[in-house]
Amino acid sequence: MIVGPYRIQQYEYTATAVATNTAPVLAYRGVAQPNCFMAIEGIMDRIARTIDVDPAEVRLRNMVPTADLPWTNVVGVRYDTGSFVESLQKAMEMAGYDEFRASQANGRLVDGKYRGIGICTFTEVSGTGAPGWRARGLTRLPGFDSGLVKVEPTGKVTAFVSHAHSGQGHFTTFAQVVADAVGARLEDVTIVEGDTAAGPYGTNTFASRSAVTGGGALIRASEKARLKMSRIAASMLEASPADIVVQDSQMHVKGVPSQSLSFRDVAETAYAMNTTDLPDGESFGIEETDYYDPPLVTMANATHIAQVAVDAADGTVEIERYTVVHDCGRIINPMIVDGQVMGGVAQGIGEALMEELVYDVDGQVKTATLADYLLPGSVDVPIFNIAHIESPSIDAVGGFKGVGEGGVIGAVPAILNAVGDALADLGVNINSKPLRPALLSRLIRESQGR
Q1: Which of 20, 94, 276, 282 is least crowded, fewest Cβ atoms below 10 Å from its Cβ?
Q2: Contact 430, 42 (CB under 8 A)
Q3: How many domains does the chain have?
Q4: The domain containing residue 243 runs over which residues?
Q5: Within-domain flag for 101
Q6: Is 367 helix (H, G, I), strand (E, B) or coil?
Q7: Environment class of 371 (CB within 10 Å of its CB; exposed 0-12, middle 13-18, buried 19+)
Q8: C-alpha triplet 39, 43, 45: angle, nearest 5°
Q9: Where are the beta strands (DSSP E) in 297-375?
Q10: Do 278 and 169 reside in the same domain of the chain?
Q11: pLDDT at residue 363 above 80?
């Protein structure tokens, strides 16, 4: 993860295990990626300050250009498609980055606030299949997911998938995928998930994998169902299966729309509910299952740019402007994708500025309830300026890439870098989080010899 979108050729790390009696670290949105990009993106800013080159230019000089994709990074992870340079350039344009830099005051202090701008460009590990989990040593995590698509005798479509939703919009997203792949109207598709008694086997929902693995499995199962219906419809219409057009829950002969059948007409034949015989060798029913094991990883990418003001007196941080250019490959539902990004950024604001497990000297948690554990509210979350670039994956079925964790992955480093930029002329080095007012006001005082 940590090498991100850059052409880093030399890479070495040391792992240190620490024993502690405080609470263990568990899975959290982004799972290590905010920390990784906090490190590498912080390094990019320190390089820029050291050699007196703009932080955006340092990134652009070191990014993998689109023309060089597919690219295998220094730790052996393949980036099949992406838009690293394009995302950064578009985000800079949307954020008015060059104009901000040109007008940035010496010392960064304007009206009692230090103002700065911060960038995070990242790659998001998503849609990991069996090869990825095996490489991590996880032997009992399957990696694949599966879909079951049934065309009922009514002509309606019911699809089961080995995922479980937790607010991501699965029922809409997966219904769109199935409707498109099987050729049905969206309102004719019902999605069933989260029922281990009825659903097919798979790996489930986590790690930005639903669209990649569940979508891929449903596409494959839907295509099987569509082909079977095409064969039955071709027999009923005395045509070739290759000449059957499937659209909006209707099937007709190519170029002859008057020769058509509804899904219900075809399904009644499939389930022997009329007097029409099935084609020779065709089985009863329309019920297809398929499995999908994606590649090692499917890489999404994005650029976040945060513009902040740090109060010189009390160290509070205000996010004045926030820009995201995101690339999750083929977009299924733009509104849901935007919602995922916004929610992730809101969560990242909390992680960067507020949320912390604080312990006393005896190891007792002092922030165990919401009376003490601060979360961002509506006044803390800015209006987002979001745009998308689509670089469909060439390795994954459907061209999808993950989106669920990108908001928080980009937000934490972008906000920290923005605060670091705001306080750069004071010589303050930002390398920890959360940046609560008490910490920042102390750093400001110490930089001024107070």
Answers
A1: 20
A2: yes
A3: 2
A4: 135-292
A5: yes
A6: coil
A7: exposed
A8: 120
A9: 298-311, 317-327
A10: yes
A11: yes
Do 354 and 422 belong to one domain? yes
Give the position of tokens 């997911």. Answer: 145
Count other C-beta atoms under 10 Å from residue 291's C-beta: 18
Q: Which candidate, 42, 36, 43, places its Cα nearest to that of 1?
A: 36
> Are 273 and 195 part of one and the same domain?
yes
Decide which of 292, 317, 348 is a domain's last residue. 292
Q: At 69, list the tokens.
A: 């994709």
Tokens for 280, please give them.
């020779």
Q: Would you state the pLDDT for residue 226?
A: 97
Q: Which residue has the higher pLDDT, 1 or 397?
A: 397
Q: At which residue do the structure tokens 């083929």 appear?
A: 330
pLDDT at 177 over 80: yes
pLDDT band at 135 (very low <50, low <70, confident <90, very high): confident
pLDDT, tens digit, 9 for 90 and up, residues 29-77: 888 899 999 999 999 999 999 999 999 999 999 999 999 999 999 988 9
Query: Which residues are bridge partners to 50 per DSSP?
Result: none
For 235-269, the DSSP string reads HHHTS-GGGEEEETTEEEETTEEEEEEEHHHHHHH
Tokens of 390: 């689509």
Indicate the residue type of 198: A
**What's the pLDDT score for residue 105?**
86
